[in-house]
Amino acid sequence: MALTLIAVCMLAFAMQSPNARLAGYYLFYISPVGMICCLSCFTSNVAGHTKKITINAFYLIGYCVGNLIGPQTFIASQAPQYRGGQISMVVCYAVSTILIAWLYYNYWSENKRRDALLAEGTLELPDIENIEFADLTDKENVKFRYKL
User: Which Gene Ontology CC terms are recorded (predicted)?
Assistant: First the structure.
């Protein structure tokens, strides 16, 4: 997502350099990788069948809403530069990058907290046989660790 943000910034703000804009255009085509990685990350870091389906549904609904709203920012009266569309792309990719960084930090700190509690012996481990199949959410299953 950071590379895609850089590419979008090159497209939006490098008006005087056609080579930089072309490089941004080529780099922008790695953006689907970010979506695939996000979907994989959300799927592997959510436990519990119902919660996993709900999170995936929210993600895909947000993706579809973005695909509906995004083209509306490219207004015909702004042609051929489409500054509104370019700025909206920069803002959306910046917010996305910040949210992913926050999510990574959140997962990392929760793993660290659970490991510290386990090392101290203060973490209450439920006595459930085959806990991985108990359909507990990631918050309920104290043995669950987020994938970074």
Answer: membrane
